[in-house]
Amino acid sequence: MLFAVHMTVNLPPDLDPAVRTSTVAAEKEYARKLQHSGEWLHLWRCAGQYSNLSVFDVTDNDRLNELLWGLPLFPYMDVTVTPLARHPSAVR
Ligand SMILES: O=C(O)CC1=CCC(=O)O1
């Protein structure tokens, strides 16, 4: 099942810099593993924003929920999920 996920990161300005650095590094590693496993299909930066537009390919809603709650930055994110269906005019 494909889902588009829009994630906006809102790190508190007063967050301990060491916590910020380690959380961002953990997020990068988490995303790297899921991209290699194939579940995190696309990861795009929304230009000019601390947000991304991602596409996940997961077995079901519960798996997506599990992955999103596991994001190290999840406590600092606004997340919007859109289930995707095939567009009738899509050529690939
Ligand atoms: O920077 C972001 O948009 C949040 C994020 C998701 C995966 C990652 O490495 O950073």
UniProtKB/TrEMBL annotation:
Pfam family, one: MIase
UniProt KW keywords: Aromatic hydrocarbons catabolism, Isomerase
Pathway: Aromatic compound metabolism; beta-ketoadipate pathway; 5-oxo-4,5-dihydro-2-furylacetate from catechol: step 3/3
Keyword Isomerase among record annotations: yes
Class in the EC hierarchy, top level: isomerase
Catalysed reaction equations from the record: (S)-muconolactone = (4,5-dihydro-5-oxofuran-2-yl)-acetate
Muconolactone isomerase domain residues: 1-89
Record EC number: 5.3.3.4
GO molecular function: muconolactone delta-isomerase activity
InterPro entries membership: Dimeric_a/b-barrel, MLI_dom, Muconolactone_d_Isoase
NCBIfam families, alphabetized: muco_delta (TIGR03221)
Family the entry assigns: Belongs to the muconolactone Delta-isomerase family.
Subunit record text: Homodecamer.
Official protein name in the record: Muconolactone Delta-isomerase
Organism: Streptomyces prunicolor
